Amino acid sequence: MASHTFTVHLQPIGRRVQVRSDQSLLDAAQLAGVELTSLCGGVGVCEACRIRLVKGQLTPLTADESHAFSATQIQQGFRLACQARPLSDAVIEIPPESLSTPQRLQLEGLQKVEDLDPAVRRYFVEIPPPSIEDLRADLTRLRDALEPICPNFECDYKVSQKIPSVCRSSQWKVQAVFHNSRLIQVLPAYPKTKLLGLAVDIGTTKVAAYLVDLETGEVFAQAGSMNPQIAFGEDVISRISYLINHPDQRANPEGNVLHRRIIESLNTLIEQMLAEANEPSLTNEAIVDAVVVGNTAMHHLFAGLPVEQLGVSPYVPAVSEPLYIPARDLGLFIAPSALVYLPPNIAGYVGSDHVAMLLPTIYPYYAAPSQGLSNVMAIDIGTNTEISLLHRREIVSCSCASGPAFEGAHIQYGMRAAPGAIERVQITPEKKILLKTIADQEPVGICGSGILDAIAEMYFADLLDSKGMFLNNHPNIRIQNRRMEFLLVPAEQSGHHQEIVITRRDVNEIQLAKGAIRAGINILLGEAGLRAEDLDALIIAGAFGSYIDVRSAMRIGMLPPIPLERCHQVGNAAGTGAKQMLLSKRYRQVASELAQRIRYIELSNHPKFADEFSKSLFFPPKDLSN
Amino acid sequence: MSQEIFAKLTNSLVEGDPDATYEATKEALAAGIEPMVIIKEGLIPGMNIVGEKFSCGEYFLPDLIIAADGMQKAMTLLEPELLKRQQAIESAGTVLLGTVKGDIHEIGKSLVATMLTANGFKVHDLGVDVPTETFVAKVKEMKPDILGLSALLTTTMVMQREVIRALQEAGIRDQVKVMVGGAPVTRSWAEEIGADGYAEDAMGAVQVARQLLGK
Asked: Cβ of A508 and B62 within 8 Å?
């Protein structure tokens, strides 16, 4: 039989895709770049790829499908995408729970070109060369040439050192780069290189850096690395106590070792990004602006500010207002006179990274014509989890000590999200265990989204009770040294021929982490007098937050139960916010305004915290609609 | 009959069912069992099993919290009865407890308080972020047998040393036994700062408190 081609329309994402009659709707979704959940690899077992036929004709129901759906669901048009093939053009609805990545907002796409208004701009000028009749100084000569466009500018002394050589080597045709009205760089006019800005998000665990073309808004290169300060402690407090216990480091005129390490590692990332560009004319001198965001401790360590007072209650920052620091003072390897912008901090544990994260997430609602009347919550999940809630034009924020469990730390077989990490887990009604690993390699460990799934699935399959204790309900549950554990992958099926096991201690680590997050959510909702169902949107940011199955997070009670279509997983929103501030001065003003307006709530001594945290350690009742 | 109710009380704590603890306590009172006996024969054995399971890694924080919740629910019924009989809970000793200055962590310290109370100690909880001078003043005023100092941060455990120094300077160091604890605190730290006792967890704290008082 000759194969036909049909158009399949995927709703509500609104994508169209051409599909051959011998291809399944799961293939169609994959062609369209829609990540439908599929754990069994399309053989009709996991029943996760549920879709609904709105219009058109499909191949008849298979036995697996009849088994998967009730009569009513079949009447409503429900099908399994891996089993159904099109017999005509068709319109298919994908319910949110079938998307493995619920409608990931493309934050990068939000940056409109008409918003481009960087703090830094450049002018090309031709300067009349000196002669015996014209004895003006080089700087004066440059001033006079720039008089019509930028009168009476300030000149950084480092720039005046290089003006004579640049002018002479370029036959007096130069580009003058200004940060507002301050001259921060002179370069030969030709070759006309790109003008670049650096955006950095310093996380406690990871660092992300972007080089952005300041004149087009395009991300020119990006790179990431681990935060080298991990060698001095995996969390903020241990790094602070390292400095408390090493007075010689605090007094080091070159800056303490944590400061130096982060600068060195940023310099390596800059080199790496420039090398990738492979344009010999593009050097560090072309990077003329920088925005660096991070939590308050990362901010202070980067800026060389003292952190000891951040380590003890009441956790006061040394500086919370925005800072501009010349790159040369930091030893950051970009144009030496470039002014590195550090947006404001909110409190000891809510830093400029959270302010940056609010720009692409909460700010659009805040500034909307409805005057920010929506109730929107934004969560950045990490070693410290920051949460903000917008309600009646007020923003309340808090920080929860969720710990590094979701990064794979403190979990016996935990690992970072790398190839071979188990990222999805399902336990079928027949108690069969289905796994998906990153890059489809043989499993070698579990990453954050995988452990979250595993615990939610074990709880719903009655292998765990609501306190997180194992119930002896599955052949893979066993007792080792008086302790119960769950065998997730037998040795012969793993990539390293060792068993992968989930212990009660692992379950407890996740309970502590999710309990802290949920307590924060509940306290913010309580402060605003809201219930979870009043939320119009729940925005989940951060690398881990982008890959979790939101349903699993709701099932174990990390997130409150709200309709899935109100949840948005947005990736590294802090990095996006940093880029926005790089490309638009307006966003720097917005950052200051938000930081001032935010009402910060300290959780650890909040009267309701101990109670909310204790309650949130347990798993919620299973009667959730989703 | 009463053995059955005691077993019910003990099991409800071990299994983490506070409502069942509450109901069994009601049942015990209705059966005419003395409140003091209910505590000693039903509740304390349960809390001790929970504590042991926690110490050996079989139980975790959620189990401890839910057991403490059951204990507190039972005490809401028993305390008025004890008052009526003008009985005080027989005291194994008095403990003054608090989290040191600069540290506002509550939960670990409160669990120690619960376990000590469950084991017959009279506990005065000073709360969190307690200034060193307050510890000294309260030791003078209340003359407790034991002072317990909690610190949950590596940055604040140094305050435990400060409190011990302040007690020495006030000349009252030998009037009170000092116990220290908290996640970053270790036995060698306790020895280094001259504390009398250290325990890894709430159950251990009860044993150490007993040892310190020679019981």
From this structure: yes
A444: CB partners within 8 A, 6+ apart: A415, A420, A421, A494, A495, A496, A500
pLDDT at A572 over 90: no
Asked whether A365 and A537 are in contact (CB, 8 A), the reply is yes
Q: Using CA atoms, how far apart are residues B44 and B121, in angstroms rounded to an integer?
A: 12
Question: How many Å lie between the alpha carbon of A312 and the closest alpha carbon of chain B?
Answer: 5
Q: What is the pLDDT of residues A159-214, one digit of tens each?
A: 999 999 999 999 999 999 999 999 999 999 988 889 999 999 998 888 999 999 99
Q: Which long-range contacts (CB under 8 A, 24 or more apart) does A304-310 make?
A: A304/A255, A304/A256, A304/A259, A304/A330, A306/A250, A307/A239, A307/A240, A307/A243, A308/A240, A308/A243, A308/A244, A308/A250, A308/B155, A310/A236, A310/A240, A310/A348
Say if residue A459's pLDDT is above 90. Answer: yes
**Strands annotated E in A416-534:** 421-427, 433-437, 445-446, 477-480, 483-489, 500-503
Is the CB of residue B58 less than 8 Å away from at least one CB of chain A? Answer: yes
Question: Helices A573-583 and A352-361 sit at what angle, rounded to 10 degrees?
Answer: 80
Q: Provide the shortest C-alpha distance from residue A308 to chain B (in Å).
A: 8
Nearest-neighbour CA in chain B from A468: distance (Å): 8
Instruction: Determine contact, residues A28/A17, Cβ cutoff 8 Å.
Output: yes
Task: Locate CATH 3.40.50.280 in chain B.
Answer: 93-212
Q: What are phi and psi of B55, to 5 degrees?
A: -60, -35
Residues A505, B66: C-beta atoms closer than 8 Å: no
Region(s) of chain B under CATH 1.10.1240.10: 2-84
C-alpha to C-alpha distance for B199 and B207, rounded to whole angstroms:
8
Distance between CA atoms of residues A178 and A187, nearest Å: 12
Note the pTM of the prediction, 2 decimals: 0.80
Residue A98: which residues within 8 A CB-CB, separation 6 or more?
A: A36, A37, A48, A49, A50, A51, A81
Facing residues of B165 across strands?
none
Is the Cβ pair A610, B154 closer than 8 Å?
no
Reduce the secondary structure of A515-561 to three states and give it as a string: HHHHHHHHHHHHHHCCCHHHCCEEEEECHHHHHCCHHHHHHCCCCCC
The fourth-level CATH superfamily of domain B2-84 is: Methionine synthase domain (1.10.1240.10)
- Using a CB-CB cut-off of 8 Å, the residues of chain B touching A618 are 62, 66
Nearest neighbour of A311 by CB, restricted to B65, B101, B153: B153
With tokens 């690993």, the residue in question is A437
Give the confidence band of A111 by pLDDT, cuts at 50, 70, 90. very low
B93-212: CATH number = 3.40.50.280
User: Which domains can be identified in chain A, with CATH numbers?
Assistant: 5-100 (3.10.20.30), 114-188 (3.10.20.880), 196-342 (3.30.420.480), 353-402+511-616 (3.30.420.40), 405-504 (no CATH)
Contacts of B14 in chain A (CB under 8 A): none
The verdict on B128 touching A (C-beta cutoff 8 Å) is yes
A334, A327 Cβ separation under 8 angstroms: yes
- Do β-strands A433-437 and A421-427 pair in parallel, antiparallel, or remain unpaired? antiparallel
Residue written as token pair 């190839």:
A419
- pLDDT < 50 regions, chain B: none
Taking the CA of residue A577 and the nearest CA in chain B, the distance in Å comes to 32
pLDDT tens profile B61-116: 888 888 988 998 998 999 899 888 877 666 889 999 999 999 888 888 988 998 89
Q: Do A469 and B106 touch (CB under 8 A)?
A: no
Structure tokens at A241: 């106590």
Query: Would you call B60 and A511 a contact, using CB atoms and an 8 Å cutoff?
Result: yes
Q: CA-to-CA distance for A365 and A353, rounded, in angstroms?
A: 19
